[in-house]
Specification:
The chain is built from 10 helices and 9 strands. With 270 residues, it is an alpha+beta fold. Strand 5, helix 9 and strand 6 form a beta-alpha-beta unit. Helix 3 crosses helix 5. The longest helix is centred in the middle third of the chain and has 21 residues.
Length: 270
């Protein structure tokens, strides 16, 4: 890739200012593109700091164990960025043009670097990144598939690979992703969930639900009144979000980043 192209590419902020757009239970979401990320107000930053203090959760599954926690340091954020370079590969390709000679692992690592940079900056401004890391117990065949789809160079020292992640923003920063009537309705502190993604071999195993539960708990810790997200292609009450208490805000659907039928969902916390 041309050095100038690479410089311009790395300057793009893949911000989750649009929705988490789900096609199925643990389907990848879509990143929006913006040229900047506004700093969070003091209240939102305070909310994010408190949310980050939510204790990690150890989940014992039938086929594998995993830990859900807030990604707090650069190494953990890099792991999440690496995951997203794979989970969101098709969505990146729609919004980012790269030289065709850059393929495979090289392409993933460039995308990972962009997302890592975004996460470093956004978490300083109030965003909370929640990840799920593989634990010690895992079926051998499944572990091999997980490692095959993971970038081992981004794996934490002494820990397992990251298998899922999402972002949560609070207050005014999150409200930018909501319709105007929601932003101005005097609902108090709000939380917005986006960029939910799970590694292929771990989908439909409950990882996305565990991440979502953690995000809701983090929002409740800060006394948020509601948690919002966007989704597409819902399947009634069987969808991931309906299972976790989210309800459709309106019948109107939107077109977001080339995905039709996106709807706003909400979970009331009090």
């Amino acid at each position: 890739i041309d050095p100038l192209q690479l410089h311009l590419f790395l300057s793009i902020d893949l911000s989750p200012r649009i929705a988490s757009l789900h096609k199925a239970h643990d389907a990848p979401t879509v990143f929006g593109v913006t040229t900047g990320a506004p700093a969070a107000p003091a209240a939102a930053a305070t909310a994010a700091a408190a949310a980050a203090a939510v204790p990690m959760r150890v989940i014992q599954g039938r086929r594998f164990d995993y830990v859900v926690k807030v990604a707090k340091n650069s190494a953990e954020l890099r792991s999440v960025a690496s995951l997203r370079s794979r989970v969101f590969r098709e969505d990146y390709d729609r919004v980012i043009k790269m030289d065709d000679s850059l393929q495979g692992v090289q392409r993933d690592r460039v995308l990972s670097t962009v997302e890592w940079d975004r996460l470093e900056r956004r978490t300083q401004g109030g965003l909370v990144c929640v990840g799920a890391w593989l634990g010690e117990k895992c079926e051998v065949e499944l572990e091999e598939r997980i490692l095959e789809e993971s970038d081992r160079s981004a794996q934490l020292v002494g820990g397992g690979p990251v298998i899922g992640a999402l972002d949560v923003v609070f207050g005014a920063d999150g409200a930018e992703d909501l319709p105007q009537d929601v932003r101005s309705s005097g609902q108090g502190l709000l939380a917005y969930v986006s960029n939910v993604g799970v590694l292929g071999p771990c989908r439909c195993t409950g990882v996305a639900g565990s991440l979502l539960n953690f995000a809701v708990e983090a929002a409740a810790t800060r006394s948020a009144s509601r948690v919002y997200t966007h989704a597409i292609d819902l399947h009634g009450r069987s969808s991931l979000y309906h299972k976790h208490g989210f309800r459709r805000v309106s019948e109107a659907a939107a077109e977001l980043e080339g995905h039709s039928g996106a709807v706003l969902l909400c979970k009331e916390l009090r």
